[in-house]
Amino acid sequence: MPVPSNSFWEQWLTAHRAKPQACVTFSLSPSPSLQDFLPDLDPSLPLDWSAQDYQGLPCLREKVLDRYGYRSACGVDDVLITAGAQEANYLALTQLLGPGDELVIDVPGWQQPLVLAAQIGAVVKPLPRSEAAGWALDIERLEELVTPRTKVIFLCNPNNPTGRVESGETLDRIIAAADHVGAYIVSDEVYRGLEWTGMETPRMATLYERGVSTGSVSKLLGLQGLRTGWMVTRDRLLISKAMALRENTSEIMNVMGEHIADIALRPERFAPAVERSRATGMQRIELLDRFVQGRPELRWHRPAAGLLGLAYLDLPMSADAFAAKLLAPPYNTFVMSGSAYACPQHIRLGAGGVSFQELERGLEQMADLLADFNRPPCFHPAVPWNQPGTGGRWPGPTGLDARCAAMAMHGELPVDRRNGDCCRP
């Protein structure tokens, strides 16, 4: 079955083509340059693949175990290096799910499994997060959703887009429900390491024999361009099946990506890089939180991890319409609408991927747009200003123009009003 398009992808594509001047929706830590790694790269490194390992560089797999805390329960043969966490999710879900199998997935959450499930013909059973409870999972509902036909429970933890982190106690109940029917749990943990409340994100691969943890060097280290990630699981058969599938897609890892990632995960590099990412990330989350707290049109639960949060938009228009207006001149700023996560009245605020100055500029543009919505509609006669008897002069604010009121309700701000002029019919 062809892969269907989705709102998430279409919004990225639209924004890319629009070439916005600012973005307030990205989630990457600041990225280093290639020059930062040149002193440690061997210029004689062969770029062929004949002597490499299908499972990924053993030294890189060892570092994933050590830097990301899987060593307590997993070994080097439990790690598969992949083209980012996206490929890791793809390999695991495609090999675990078949037509008619049930996928229980947290919503709002990462949308990739929904696309894959539709392609495979699996049955999606959404597990709702409660905004009123800080985007907590409804565990009682999960226990009702899981049946003998459930093959996979998918979690994004820390969560994209809410920034929620599930506790060990919550995960214990999820594991019990999965274990009862022999289901796998795939946990996308790409935002691990960017926790802001002191609660460390549990590692699913270390907690459950059918647990799968996926991750990458993208979010914490800002190395998205390397396309280097991993799948960690104690199920060696699943590792083998994933490798068999990859033989027919990307086949192998890219040599440069693996070697640069291996350098980035060396202890003397990894620790200061994490410290920088956490320091800059906290500063940016503080900026977003101050912005939201200062705007009556927005409210959110401050993210506990990552550089994303989902904010409710308290305006008489959809988030799609708001995001489209913000992307257009004169604002030229990209924010993702929550429709990408089936939350049509929310926007995805992100503190990463751009300079601090660009983030500030984007928030200023958003503040300008929100301020325009809060200006009262123009008052003037609901008759043409140049009708006979007016002498061609504006007769004054004697009534509410129904057209202006309707435009304001739908977010269609008259352009002239941005210049302080009254809009005219």
UniProtKB/TrEMBL annotation:
InterPro entries: Aminotransferase_I/II_large, PyrdxlP-dep_Trfase, PyrdxlP-dep_Trfase_major, PyrdxlP-dep_Trfase_small. The keyword Transferase applies. Keywords: Aminotransferase, Transferase. Residues 52-364 form the Aminotransferase class I/classII large domain. The keyword Transferase applies. One of its GO terms (molecular function) is pyridoxal phosphate binding. It comes from the Bacteria. This is Aminotransferase class I and II.
